[in-house]
Design a protein that fits this description.
The complex is a heterodimer of chains A (176) and B (776). Chain A is mainly alpha-helical. Chain A contains nine helices and no strands. Chain B is α+β, with helices and mostly antiparallel strands and 776 residues long. Chain B folds into four domains: 86 residues, Penicillin-binding protein 1b domain (Penicillin-binding protein 1b fold, 2-Layer Sandwich); 187 residues, Biosynthetic peptidoglycan transglycosylase-like (Penicillin binding protein transpeptidase fold), CATH 1.10.3810.10; 232 residues, 3-Layer(aba) Sandwich (Beta-lactamase), CATH 3.40.710; 65 residues, no CATH class. Chain B has 25 helices and 35 strands. The longest helix of chain B is centred in the first third of the chain and has 35 residues. The chains are: A mainly alpha (176), B alpha+beta (776).
């Protein structure tokens, strides 16, 4: 019987701590952060020159394969997309996503570098792509043990595109 | 006496039995090994067709023909593997195919064309527009083990039309079904015919004997060999049924020559002569194949159609006589003219590529495994680019020899050689590899196995070492920095070394850009010594050079011996914005639908993208104004960067050129180094341009993306100072942000030298070094 008031007190303390922590987190969020609806590659399949359009169609097929649990097949399709257009940043983004969720997430970083460079060369990346670049880098760093580097990036992605980055990872269907 | 005879008979009997048993073992081991061995095939990537694609450039009609698609001339919907041209449209029923990354269903599509471009692709029936479709991969080659220069497509007897085996039996061995490996009637008949003719005119070999000869024996005409052949034929007949023997024969028989590759078997021959599968052969076509068995080259329907027609008709007559054809079938077949497919050159001497691929495969896939396991290897080879590479190399070497006849050698082993290698810089895929003039003459691959001095193609690595910031320190140079082109003497272990420029001239102070564009030796040696040879080696290693590099000042001139594939990789790293790809020749190895090996795309950033861009910009200058300007003079437009390389005594000629999507290395030289007497811009560069024009026409797409940490400024190219109003000469130059010149050239400060001095003062390490070395 004597333990019951103690348990209730503990529960109260935990609740208060959680409340305070939540408030602190909320307060720490930059209120000026604008959220965006993160880009899905299926939205851009009709953009760019013919090679880019065909390449992006393949990227979408690859994401379908990834979403259907066929990662090897997906990777093969992404590579086909690169054969059609080796400068397609979306293909590198999709491969980076594939690796960030895979066994060796650090491999995602060089693909993100490449995607980033190509987006920048095209005058981008657009605000709707940026959360993916930031979030995937964070996901890859976090998953490969570089938590201190990965966490702030994940938080930035979450703040910018909460629709897809709330869970700290990007699913194939969310990029599709 | 009788006992002695009995002993002799027993010994002879024992010896004969042992010999027959030995032959039986040979027959079993070789026949079964050969019969059931399925060579591994190497395939290209599938061809993707999509609206906007230039269908003429990708040679769509030729590709369909190579894939065995047949044009349909009669009305009706095309069945899989058939196509029909209409006005401005191509209706094609694509075949289904399996690929490691996809299973493509058969699709009947209409490709609407607008000039050279695919306008749209519409599915039939239904009319729905599709974004893209795929053609199955092309066969690049296969691994046959014993003789890699044989090409065959194995077929099963049950897949073949009856009239094909009937045609072969009618002319080669009409009593095949009834004899036991040796046909005494035929031997007698042939003997009489030959006596009558006064020489050997008619063979007596049965089909089984011919098979035995091909499988086990040499072609020499000796009694011993003929006897062994007969015994082995009897053994084969005793051990195997007629269907198995006939199937082996049809897969084994030599049926012609494509370049240096022998065509063996009716499967491969059907594709070679008629562009179709053996199962689709008509009576007339089957008779033609049977006709040429006797002497495929003398009766070649490509070269001697009249001889081939005459013998085909003889085969048809024999088939009629032997009741294998009805009169109506005979007459209809005989009325058909000989229609053979255009000779499609084998995928441009792809044997060098196949060898390179074999060397890249894990060790478990040795020659024996590849020859029998029937693997499907999906390669990176682009057949169209491969043909372009081979053709450009052969034409280029011929051109050099016709201009300089003293270079021409009759001995194949001593001829002028070369290499063309094309790599996709983003992925490291080797798209084309021509490792020499003729695989038949020499199997040594100059692209991956040769190590030759890099010459001036090495110089960009020295400039990159200078352009790259070291930690928080600024870089040693910018593209606008002045380097000294004045007499130089370097102390070496072998004594003083006084390098010279190729023209023995000195130009005084020159910008780094000007020095690289003109491929000047003195400035790059000075720069190499300033940044340190170890640092140059570090840069070259990071970019992708793996060969040993001597840590000596002359390394800056490319004295290290490297393989062209290493040079391709290093330049790919530059073209790819500092991300180093892994060169590779295959993607997947598949057996029975299961992927055994997969080559994952991997790369690594080894150089800042800004520095890679500066290097690219300098190399664009080489093509615009420098030693590579013949690229433009020869009419090739678009974003191109490149570097010439001619080694001491003109032993080696190089040109490495790249576009945003392709790096191509060309090397020309003798295997046993000797002077060529030609500059690379006249020897190697034209081969590069020829290849690019064949592959892409005269203009290519894309651009080299400029990263944000690089900015463009107008400068005075003579002094490297920022150009303001009033500056006499200006040019656009690129700089890493934070390394822009600090002085300006304008009407207020006409003294350009002063501007340069201050620029140099900003980098005290450099002045200090020169002071230390040269006491200046």
């Amino acid at each position: 019987m004597s333990s019951r008031p103690g348990a209730a007190r503990s529960l109260l303390w935990v609740s208060m701590a959680a409340l305070l922590l939540g408030s602190a987190c909320t307060l720490s969020l930059p209120r000026s952060t604008r959220t965006v609806e993160a880009l899905r590659i299926s939205e851009v399949v009709d953009e760019g020159d013919p090679a880019r359009r065909a390449s992006n169609r393949l990227v979408v097929k690859g994401l379908d394969a990834d979403a259907a649990g066929a990662p090897e097949r997906a990777l093969g399709i992404y590579e086909e997309a690169l054969r059609v257009d080796a400068t397609n940043p979306y293909a590198y983004l999709a491969i980076a996503r594939h690796h960030a969720s895979g066994d060796d997430p650090s491999w995602a970083l060089s693909f993100l570098d490449k995607a980033d460079a190509l987006f920048r060369a095209d005058g981008g990346p657009s605000p709707r792509v940026q959360p993916h670049l930031v979030g995937l880098r964070g996901q890859a760093l976090y998953a490969s043990g570089r938590i201190d580097q990965g966490l702030p990036l994940l938080e930035e992605a979450w703040q910018t595109a909460p629709d897809v980055w709330t869970d700290g990872r990007l699913d194939a269907a969310e990029l599709r | 006496m009788a006992r002695a005879l009995a002993v002799i008979a027993a010994v002879l009997g024992f010896w004969a039995s042992s010999w027959v048993l030995e032959q039986d073992q040979v027959v079993r081991a070789r026949f079964e090994g050969r019969r059931f061995a399925v060579p591994s095939q190497v395939l290209s990537a599938p061809t993707v067709l999509y609206p906007g694609l230039d269908w003429k450039r990708i040679e769509l009609p030729e590709t369909l023909e190579r894939l065995g698609y047949r044009e349909l001339r009669e009305p009706g919907d095309p069945t899989p593997g058939r196509y029909r041209w209409g006005r401005g449209r191509l209706r094609v029923h694509l075949r289904a195919f399996d690929h490691p990354s996809r299973r493509e269903p058969a699709r009947d599509v209409e490709i609407r064309l607008a000039g050279n471009v695919i306008d749209s692709i519409v599915e039939r029936p239904g009319g729905g527009e599709v974004g893209m479709v795929m053609l199955e991969p092309e066969l690049v080659g296969a691994y046959y083990g014993i003789d890699e220069r044989e090409q065959r497509d194995l077929v099963r007897l049950e897949e073949l039309p009856r009239h094909l085996s009937d045609a072969v039996l009618a002319v080669e061995d009409q009593r095949f079904e009834s004899h036991h490996g040796v046909d005494p009637r035929r031997i007698v008949g042939a003997f009489l015919a030959n006596v009558k003719a006064g020489g050997i005119r008619q063979g007596a070999s049965t089909l089984t004997q011919q098979l035995v000869k091909n499988f086990f024996l040499t072609p020499e005409q000796t009694f011993q060999r003929k006897f062994t052949e007969a015994v082995m034929a009897l053994l084969v007949e005793a051990r195997y049924d007629k269907e198995a023997i006939l199937e082996s024969y049809l897969n084994e028989i030599y049926l012609g020559q494509r370049g240096s590759t022998e065509i063996h078997g009716v499967g491969e021959a059907a594709k070679f002569y008629f562009g179709k599968r053996a199962s689709e052969l008509s009576v007339s076509e089957s008779a033609l194949l049977a006709a040429i068995v006797q002497s495929p080259n003398r009766l070649s329907p490509h070269r001697h159609p009249e001889r081939a027609l005459e013998r085909r008709n003889l085969v048809l007559d024999l088939m009629l006589e032997q009741g294998r054809l009805t009169r109506e079938e005979h007459d209809r077949a005989q009325a058909e003219p000989i229609r053979v497919a255009t000779i499609t050159p084998e995928v441009g001497e792809s044997r060098y590529f196949l060898d390179a691929l074999k060397r890249q495969l894990p060790e478990v896939y040795d020659s024996d495994v590849l020859a029998v396991e029937g693997l499907e290897i999906y390669s990176t080879l682009d057949p169209r680019l491969q043909r372009a590479a081979v053709q450009a190399l052969l034409n280029g070497l011929e051109r050099i020899e016709s201009q300089y006849p003293e270079l021409r050698e009759e001995d194949g082993a001593k001829r002028l050689q070369g290499c063309v290698l094309a790599m996709r810089p983003q992925t490291g895929e080797i798209l084309a590899l021509a490792g020499g003039r003729s695989y038949g003459e020499s199997q040594f691959d100059r692209c991956t196995q040769a190590r030759r001095q890099a010459g001036s193609t090495f110089k960009p690595f020295v400039y990159i070492a200078g352009l790259e910031p070291r930690g928080s320190d600024p870089p040693t140079i910018t593209p606008a920095s002045l380097l000294s082109d004045t007499p130089l003497e370097v102390e070496t272990r072998q004594g003083p070394w006084t390098p010279r420029n190729y023209d023995h001239e000195f130009r005084g102070p020159v910008t780094a850009r000007h020095a690289l564009e003109g491929s000047l030796n003195i400035p790059v040696i000075r720069l190499g010594m300033e940044v340190g040879v170890e640092r140059v080696i570090d840069v070259a290693r990071r970019l992708g050079i793996t060969s040993r590099m001597p840590a000596v000042p002359s390394l800056a001139l490319g004295t290290a011996a490297v393989a062209p594939v290493e040079v391709a990789r290093a330049y790919s790293t530059i073209a790819n914005g500092g991300i180093r790809p892994q060169p590779h020749t295959f993607e997947d190895v598949v057996a029975g639908g299961e992927t055994l090996e997969r080559r994952e795309l991997r790369f690594e950033r080894v150089l800042d993208d800004g520095v890679a861009y500066l290097a690219t910009s300098l190399l664009e200058g080489v093509v615009e104004r420098g030693t590579g300007r013949r690229v433009r003079a020869m009419g090739f437009q678009g974003p191109v960067a490149g570097k010439t390389g001619t080694t001491d005594d003109e032993y080696d000629l190089w040109f490495v050129g790249f576009t945003p999507e392709l790096v191509v290395v060309v090397w020309v030289g003798f295997d046993e180094p000797r002077t060529i007497g030609v500059q690379s811009s006249w020897g190697a560069l034209p081969i590069w341009v020829d290849f690019m024009k064949r592959a892409y026409g005269t203009r290519i797409r894309g651009l080299f993306p400029r990263p944000p940490n690089v900015r463009e400024l107008e400068i005075n190219p003579e002094t490297g100072a920022i150009a303001m109003v009033g500056c006499r000469v200006t040019a656009t130059e690129v700089f890493l942000r934070g390394t822009e010149p600090q002085r300006i050239c304008d009407w207020k400060s006409p003294n350009a030298e002063r501007a340069v001095d201050v620029d140099r003062e900003r980098r005290p390490r450099r002045g200090g070094f020169w002071d230390r070395i040269f006491g200046r």
